[in-house]
Write a structure and sequence with these properties.
The chain contains two helices and eight strands, in the order βββαβββαββ. The protein has about 160 residues and is of the alpha/beta class. Helix 1 crosses helix 2.
């Protein structure tokens, strides 16, 4: 599973020229599900997103998680193109999970983030969406569950 997490002052997604989801300060999350991903990857991704300490503390260092920063709002958008194979000029997407696998795992990440107390807005899986954001920093982090150590998923924020 992969995610591009951007710290935002605000973000919204529009479908057919209508706002479908919008947040103020928090994270815009573009989430891709890889073929072979399971609930374990969804759990790890939700843990990592909700615990990312990328807000500044009093000393100006990135050391504060979204909840403590008062930014516990997420806009999570499905993004299969995060698994694009660009070895040729025309990207291939065979590494991305098919919808029958990807949709339940996307929904699991959303549910797990909500269970952690986050307000979560979403797009619509597979829809043609326009995503708008006012980046804060800018701070953008690339997450891949293949890169997570087993120990991180078990630590507290």
């Amino acid at each position: 599973m992969r995610a591009v997490v951007t710290r935002v002052k605000n973000a919204r997604v529009e479908i057919d020229c209508a706002v479908h989801g919008a947040i103020d300060q928090g994270f815009l999350v573009l989430l891709g599900v890889r073929a072979g991903d399971t609930e374990a990857e969804a759990q790890k991704m939700a843990d990592k997103i909700c615990g990312l300490r990328i807000f500044e503390d009093a000393a100006g260092k990135m050391n504060v998680n979204p909840t403590d920063a008062g930014a516990d709002r997420l806009l999570i958008i499905s993004q299969f193109t995060l698994f694009a194979d660009c070895r040729s000029r025309r990207p291939g997407f065979t590494e991305a999970a098919r919808p029958d696998t990807a949709i339940p795992l996307y929904e699991t990440v959303i549910r797990l983030c909500r269970e952690r107390g986050f307000t979560v807005e979403t797009g619509v899986f597979g829809a043609d969406m326009q995503v708008f954001s006012q980046n804060d920093g800018p701070v953008t982090i690339l997450l891949d569950t293949d890169d997570f150590s087993g120990a991180w998923a078990h630590r507290a924020n």
